[in-house]
Amino acid sequence: MELNSVKETGVLIVGAGPTGLALAVDLARRGVPALVVERADGLFPGSRGKGIQPRTMEVFDDLGVVDAVRAAGGPAPTGAVWQDGRRVGEHVMFARIEPSEAEPYTGPWLLPQWRTQEILHARLTELGGRVAFGAGLTRLGQDADLVTADLSDGTTVLARYAVAADGGRSTVRGLLGIGMTGETVDPKPMLVADVRIPALDRDNWHVFPPADGHGFVSVAPLPGTDDFQLVAQYADGESPDTSAEAVRAVVAARTHLTADQVTEVRWVSDFRPRAALADRFREGRVFLAGDAAHIHSPAGGQGLNTSVQDAYNLGWKLGQVLRHGAPPALLDTYEQERRPVAAEMLGLSTRVHRGEEQRGRTTQQLGIGYRGGPLSTGAAGALTAGDRAPDGRLPDGSRLFDAFRGPHFTLLAVGTDAELPPGLPGLVHVHRTGPYEPYGKGLFLVRPDGYVGWAGEDATGLVDHLARVTG
């Protein structure tokens, strides 16, 4: 409802990056009123987070955007290593893992961040949501019932909850006084740019190792575009020049290409690889998500993916509380589940950056889970509560992921005739299927975010668990 310059909403989302847009899409399909506000006048224009890991592809499948993501992106090509103007070898950038019934997506899938955001924004618009651009946060307050936010466009927003999805330099985090603890992963600064180099082939990810006192250069083709993402490392103490002329000079100095072969410099940024974790992910009615909560080295391809999965974890919980009367204590589990995951992914990103661990099974994020967490109860067959729920086929040939898609819970009876309690909530969809190795035999309650919340050989304890999460 709009009254003069006052807007009321269920959830205020600050920041229209991948985190904020993914959360807004999730809330929109749950019927939760949400407003996304963005300080900039439009979506972020650069390629920065370009690698989408398999687990995030599963999230995008559920959110209804995976077909668009697949159509717009492509797999990571083989690396071509150059020295003195000659190709001297090949480098497999990412371990090749074949898809399976249980794990249909392998990766990473390359897609420039700006395109990912366009796809999520289009989905949000399709669901009736919107982003208020040119509306930066200037003041934030809260009481026991509401968050009050003043925006640079003169609007005041009253919301039940707010989510900081406004990046590593989060205004919200600063206003809340939440600190970050971390370290410099590498003292050498980096430059990243989106460039066009028609003379360079697009079949490889081109790598130019350090030479003549210069750091490495990486030039990766961005699928679905005519662009490459250029990454250049500088010496400790140097300050990267982000002008177009300087970008061309870097290419000319460190590769066999000439400056004029870089026909366009479309976007440039510099950064120093860091790993940092917010001291807490919540202050009253305000939550931190994405880079506002954790900052990664880009080397492991974990930052954008961990961020989108923050939103996915928080979205269903906000939906349960605001739409279905679940206990507000359910929202306490967001930090309890996601902060340990973020810490784990920060460590992984740092190890990959330093060459201490290779990209592979771990960086795909399919092994992330919440075993032992506050919403994980029981075990059955091959799975323990907190595990990711594998894909597969139901007796009618449809995918389990099709059955999971949406804002509901899914109760799977796998290879068992165990009786189910009467009067299950309408939010619980029930499916029975025969024995299936990735599950074994048993009853499995799959949360809206695709993790097993409760498991058992019979239904003992299921009703009590549902009361905690469905209201």
Structure description:
There is one protein chain. It contains 10 helices and 28 strands. The strands form 5 sheets. Strands 1, 2, 3, 9, 10, 11, 12, 20 and 21 form a 9-stranded mixed beta sheet that branches.
Topology:
Elements: E1 2-3, E2 6-14, H1 18-29, E3 34-38, E4 51-52, H2 54-63, H3 66-72, E5 74-75, E6 79-83, E7 86-91, E8 109-110, H4 113-126, E9 131-133, E10 137-142, E11 147-151, E12 156-164, H5 171-176, E13 180-184, E14 190-196, E15 205-208, E16 217-221, E17 228-233, H6 244-254, E18 264-271, E19 274-278, E20 282-283, E21 286-288, E22 294-295, H7 303-324, H8 332-353, E23 377-380, E24 383-384, H9 400-404, E25 409-414, E26 428-433, E27 442-446, E28 452-456, H10 462-470
Parallel strand pairs: 2-3, 2-12, 3-9, 6-15, 12-21, 23-28, 25-26
Antiparallel strand pairs: 1-2, 4-8, 5-8, 6-7, 10-11, 11-12, 13-19, 14-17, 14-18, 15-16, 16-17, 19-22, 20-21, 23-24, 25-27, 27-28
Helix pairs in contact: 1-4, 1-7, 7-8
Notable characteristics:
471 residues, 9-stranded mixed beta sheet, FAD/NAD(P)-binding domain, alpha+beta, globular
Radius of gyration: 23 Å
Global geometry: globular
Write down the overall mean pLDDT. 94
Q: How many domain units?
A: 3
CATH homologous superfamily label of the largest domain: FAD/NAD(P)-binding domain
- Largest pleated sheet: 9 strands, mixed
Computed structural class: alpha+beta
